[in-house]
Amino acid sequence: MVHYAEATRLDASFAALSDATRRGVLEQLGRAEASITDLAERFHMTLTGMKKHVGILERAGLVITEKVGRVRTCRLGAQGLTAEADWIENYHARWHARFDALDDVIAELKAKEKMDGPDRQ
Predict the structure, then answer these.
(1) Among candidate residues 10, 9, 41, the one with its CA nearest the CA of residue 25
(2) CB of 82 within 8 A of CB of 37?
(3) What CA–CA distance (Å, rounded) separates 54 from 66?
(4) Contacts of 19 (CB under 8 A, 6+ apart)
(5) Nearest one of 29, 26, 7, 6 to 16, comparing CA atoms
(6) DSSP line for 94-120
(7) Residue 59 in 3-state DSSP?
(8) pLDDT truncated to tens, each residue of the chain (121 aa)?
(9) DSSP SS3 for 78
């Protein structure tokens, strides 16, 4: 069971990851730190728009910003996506188990059909 604080963090992370620009920002920051200005130029958007995207990523704990003089530099957050990957893997395992069970039912039905003959009704 997911605890409330963890669920809130997952909500913030998945909401942040739901946007293609923010995923692109994370990909870019995975290669190297960048200023908000550099990110805005790279993604062809206004500085205000990029500040909003970075703010969402920062609130989710996925990005850390540091202001030095007039430049705000962004880098990946320390928490990573471990909790999110674990949550996804939990559901992946559930679905995999369900599909395995479905495969078993299908195999049993095929075996029964083979034993009964194809034209029997």
Answers:
(1) 41
(2) no
(3) 12
(4) 53, 56
(5) 26
(6) HHHHHHHHHHHHHHHHHHHHHHH-TT-
(7) helix
(8) 556 566 788 899 999 999 999 999 999 999 999 999 999 999 999 999 999 999 999 999 999 999 989 999 999 988 778 888 888 898 888 888 888 888 888 988 888 888 887 665 5
(9) coil
State the DSSP string of 30-43. Answer: HH--EEHHHHHHHT
Interior/surface letters 33-55, b for 16+ CB within 10 angstroms, e for the rest: ebbbebbbeebeeeeeebbebbe
Which residues lie below 8 Å from residue 79, measured CB to CB, with a gap of 6+? 61, 62
Residue 10 structure tokens: 């997952």
* Its pTM surpasses 0.85: no
If we measure between CA atoms, which residue out of 52, 53, 76 comes closest to residue 66? 76
